[in-house]
Amino acid sequence: xxxxxxxxxxxRIPIKATIQEIYDYWTTQEGMEKWFLRLSEFYTxxxxxxxxxxxxxxxxxYKWMWHGYSDEVVEYGEILExxxxxxxxFTFAEQxxxxxxxxxxxxxxxxxxxxENIPTDDQSKVRFHLGCSNGWTFYLSNLKSILExxxxxxxxxxxxxxxxxx
Length: 166
Prior knowledge:
Elements: E1 8-14, H1 19-26, H2 29-35, E2 39-43, E3 61-65, E4 75-82, E5 87-92, E6 96-105, E7 108-116, H3 122-149
Antiparallel strand pairs: 1-7, 2-3, 3-4, 4-5, 5-6, 6-7
């Protein structure tokens, strides 16, 4: 464990969907709310709210809220890159950067997520490395579930707290 790099992690998952289908689920309000968030608002660089089906672009900002959390739990960030094909990068969890890539490997479609720039103090190791890694594990599995079978695994009962699926 002495050489473990707490400043980043990477997760990969095969999904039986096209690269474009996966990308679309990441890059519109409509897509994000199907598998990840209860509210996903994107704003243009001019601060105008985007249409729920309009793809995001570099320079857009976001406001995200999750099922299972109060309205006071809000994530704000910026889209750093969105190439329209297979790459998305955004700020997340204060100072972290998340990069999502989609590609083919061994006749499968792979979605790879990396979170980096994680501070390495003890509190950040728990909150942003362990916590975010666990959260992304669930949400990437839910994306796979939605795209492959249509079943949403999220807890949507806001009275249930500290659930692995919210």
